[in-house]
Amino acid sequence: MNKRVLIIEDDPHIADLVELSLRDDGFRLDRAADGEAGLRLARTGAYSLVILDIMLPGMDGLAVCRHLRGEQSRLPILMLTAKSEEIDKVLGLELGADDYLTKPFSVRELVARVKAILRRVQAREEGTSAAQAGVIWHGALGIDLERRRVMRGGHPVELTNKEFDLLALFASHPGRAYSREQLLNLVWGYSFSGYEHTVNSHINRLRQKIETDPAHPRFIQTVWGYGYRFAEREELSA
Predict the structure, then answer these.
(1) Of 114, 26, 9, which is closest to residue 61 (Cα–Cα)?
(2) Can you give the pTM of this predicted structure?
């Protein structure tokens, strides 16, 4: 595997468990016991994934995630939470975390989630087929699938990982309507039942970045009572 993972967890027993579990699968591990130290390490670019606890001394995990995504970091994040409140999970996903686990969790599930995230990252980087290579243009909006870059009217648009994944999915299938449940499964990789509003939040932020008038979107259109669709080229040229 030879992937390097950063564990940001203040409970030494949980950190030991995570480290031993992943080391047995060939991962290289580093650890931080608080948010500030973890953020400094995460910013070095030395890691393939961060396992990030929400409850940390000083800067909490949500703040660490917010800093990384605010800096346009695409570093994959798996969040850990001991809380039962849904708000923590929802906030983590909306801030750009790739997945979450609720404590207590099984070692097998932890390793499976880590591997699933890394497989999705590898698939994004390598491209799933030659047909996906190159740049998709929809009017003045260009989506470079290989370099994960977006241009609008000749100017770069900064997107988070999930925002780019949503846009790439839509732009690759213009006219196709997706339900919120389908988008959760296709973009986040799991069926997060009850978290459909997470999709709404990402769509709203994406519209703010790519639409000339987000209140009257041309690219990402709402399919009332179902979900969203991307406009077909004929609609955009009309």
Answers:
(1) 9
(2) 0.63
